[in-house]
Amino acid sequence: MAVKEPSIKSMKHEDFKDNEYIDKLVEELNATGANVMVGKLDQLINWGISNSLWPLCFGTSCCAIEFMCLGAARYDMARFGFEVARNSPRQADYIMVQGTIVHKMAPALVRLYDQLAEPKYVIACGGCAVSGGPFKKSYCVVDGVDKIIPVDVFIPGCPPRPEAMFYGLMQLQRKIKLQKFFGGVNRQEKIQDFFRKHPSEAGEY
Amino acid sequence: MSVKDCISKICPSATFEEGDILLVNVPAENWRKLAEELKHNPELNFDVLTAVVGMDWKESLGVVYYFTATSHKWEMLSVKVAVADRENPYIHTVSDLWKVANFQEREVYDFFGIKFIGHPDMRRFFLRNDWKGFPLRKDYDANPALNPIPTDDEKNEDDTISYVEQPDGTIKGIPGKVFKEGDYVVNVGPQHPSTHGVMRFRAAIDGEEVKKVDVVSGYIHRGIEKLCESLGYPQILHFTDRMDYMSAHQNRHCLCMCIEKAMGLVIPERAVVIRTIMDELMRISSHLLSFGCTAMDLGATTAFFYGFREREMILDIFEKTCGARMSMNYNVIGGVIADLHPDFVKDVKALLAIMPERLKEYHKVYSGNIIAKNRMVGVGHLSKEDAINYCITGPSGRGSNWSNDCRKKHPYAAYDRVEFDEVLLDGCDSYARYMVRMKEIEQSCRIIEQLIDRIPEGDIRAQVPKIVKLPAGHWYTQVEASRGTFGVYIESDGGKTPFRVHFQSPCFNLVGVMDLCCRGNMIADLITIGAALDFVIPDIDR
Amino acid sequence: MFDFGIVTNWINDLLVGCMPVWAATLIECVIIGVLILLAYTVLALFYILYERKLCAWFQCRLGPMRVGPWGLLQVFADMFKILIKELISLKGTDKFLFKLAPYIIITSSVVMLACLPWGRGLQIIDYNIGIFFILAVSSVGVLGILLAGWSSNNKYTLIGAMRSGAQMISYELSLGLALMSIVVLAGTMNINELVAQQERCWFIFQGWLPAVVAFVIYVIAATAETNRGPFDLPEAEHELTAGYHTEYSGIHFGFFYLAEYLNLFIVSGIASLMFLGGWMPFHIAGLDCFNMVMNWIPGPIWFLAKAFFISYVIIWFKWTFPRVRIDQMLALEWKYMMPFALVNLIVMAVFVAFGWTF
Lengths: 205, 542, 358
What we know:
The complex is a heterotrimer of chains A (205), B (542) and C (358). Chain B contains 18 helices and 17 strands. Chain B has helices at residues 3-10, 28-40, 101-112, 224-228, 233-241, 248-263, 269-297, 301-322, 344-367, 370-376, 384-389, 394-398, 406-409, 430-452, 506-512, 514-518, 523-533, 537-541, and strands at 15-17, 22-27, 48-56, 61-69, 75-83, 90-92, 115-117, 159-165, 171-177, 184-188, 200-206, 209-216, 331-332, 335-336, 473-481, 484-492, 500-504. Chain B has a five-stranded mixed beta sheet with strand order 1-2-5-4-3. The longest helix of chain C is centred in the first third of the chain and has 38 residues, at 21-58. Classes of the chains: A alpha/beta (205), B alpha+beta (542), C mainly alpha (358). Chains A and B meet through helix 3 and helix 4 of A and helix 4 and helix 8 of B.
């Protein structure tokens, strides 16, 4: 079954940057090939996930205020169905790291990431989360959250405008639309891998 | 008798340095005696401890204290205490005299390793307990291998230590515990929707009642003060926008004023007025956000959206002139970076025209609501004495009827030529704090109204040399930021980079009263009190 | 009014005619079961979208817009997402109770839904103590919340569960008393008969003052019963992150989410049946032409419209008022609403005894 480029309502494919990445993903998917049934189911599930991304409330500094603007009336992320911000990581779909992560916060962020239920995504939002930003040279700043957790989308800016955040979220949607749910992101090995690394957490799991 | 004479009588070994604020050099062993006199002697009566600045002068470590006497026309005084011992520096605490020193001294300990004798709880404040070294010391080893990114969870820091001077002069550490055995401790934060960022409170509760709150800070401590020491003066300006991002203009204004004072620079009139208008716009925007967040924390989500609707108008004004919605980076040394946008006056007038009516709407939607009143009236009592003792400035202090507005006490920029009232309420509770903010929006509108048609023509910036160098010395400036008095301390050794920069943020003091305000209230009130005090975490942690 | 009993009886006769009675009953049970679950899901999805759109409009926003026309498919996307989310099982929890809790909640709300008649004859069981049964089943839900909070081994969930227990048990009193006022007026607990008596005039008009008071008390108590704002303390997002269901993920959380919205429909449905005449159309004595037009509108639509209207009011509460505090909430119930409801019950009895009703 041929996989097509993911489409986003009222945004043309050419309007996006970094299309090489998406094209490569499409190519890869087409090369491996998939059963029509599985492929269609994958598409349905990916449609569901990509249109129902519930954020975890996680703001450390300035970017969080812009994220609030994103939810407020002018930008209204509810239009995309992103407004159900969950405070419990178990129920959220992605962390948008908004702001600097410092050494003291790093274990907490990793823990939050571990607490998210699969499938889960991470967006590094703002210069600090991407690379440490203006605080890069500080003694206790993590220069880039990708050092501690895997990141799906980077949104630069200090802080990024709400439009930039939308753009980042749409890029995440595009990426999700090309993922393989069966045999892909849904792997149980990931979980087992975690418990291999953290045997003390395993208990009677 | 002047302050100087009075101090030399109490402590003959003290030496004085004149400046815009009188500096007293006191030997460490006489410090405690002087401190008691400063607080209790009616001739001195310095009842506010404005700032505590830890210092490393390479040959010695020490602390510079800034005091204000509210009864003597807000006269300021600074005291320098130094100790030569770098291994085990000890200074007597003043946290029992001025309660605000409790967290301030913990910060100094965290950064410089100075131990305060008699302090009840000498733990680190910002950094983890397993942190090696004291980062703001000049000889700090910044090797990342020493302090790698931690992967293990932080231990609950229940063990405290208090240093007590024995009769024979030796100093002994007495261990203690934060919580009693069997306390039911609920952890709020660092990731929690109502801490306005990444603050962490550990609350011992009995049923729904809060018995004690332990503040654990530092989850967004970015080491700004240390970073400043390696950057030139124009380069450090942008940090202020990112500390209290809701007072970006005011904070930056303060830092610029401090550098300008040191350089002896005169600012063009146009820039002065523009800065004042921008400060007040920022204050309105901040109070609108505070209104929205207070409402949202108490469950009235809709009011939040109404506050943000008007805030967007202000952000548009900022964006047109400064080029950014947040982190404007607008003030520079000598003036402002760019001239006003042609639409500026029109946009501001449009904002002023709708604000009174919108404020009425807010009161209708939220402030007048019986549930909101029940949730806030009488919750989080903070008396005027406590407000002064804990140095709670800004709207929160004025909600306790303490007149502390820096714009009135030490007028700066264009505030001496505009008419406005300092809003004072005597409720001493969360509702009073909240209402002060709402009324300050009106006053800010009033200030802007007076200035908007009187922006003088002329330069927007004074002539500033390419490389800014300050003469050797130290300076302290204050402005009234959205959340209280924001102070900047700069010490220079004559070079291109500052020797030490300290930001005295208002929110740092606000979080100090959480324990006092929350005791005896319910868990839900913890959220109310936090929302009404309205602290911004990056401003606390810096 | 069209009697749906004709249709159901016809199906029954058809089935009994071609197979033994036990097989017919079995098939009927399966059909009914499927229908209920279907109605449950559709209603819950509708309600989720309904609330999201409504709250967006209250807040000068647009709400879901981009998934499907006017965002209609948004809830389906959410459903697919929730269905495939990982179910996290936690260390230190009571595994059995942890997994049982969402099912208790969902079962209780499904049973309540099954008791509501949507039109004449469009009902599963015609109990003679229908309203009493609904009240009894509704109290089972709180058990699920308590178990969820306790078994999660988390302090937030425990506080949320305790609050919920205190709240639901207290407000059940005034809820029950408000409904009892109507039972006194009607003299029956059978829901069908209750509705039938409102053909001439709805109970809220028949019983005038005490009925209106009972209605107001009922709506407030129902808001608290469904844990919705301003009484959403058990899940008070800004205090307890997500309250009693903090530790639940995936479809287990989905069950809590669905049950919350379905409970909203159920309490609105009960209000519609007890106060606003259920599937009975709106009649004004004397205006025959108007009454004729009203009669043309089918019963289930009347029932749903009334239920949606009351839900609208409850949603409106949530997005307008701040949250009350636990002590204020209990004070409101025990100091004001419960005594008031008791007095109201007596007043109603007096009214009925003296025949001062319409």
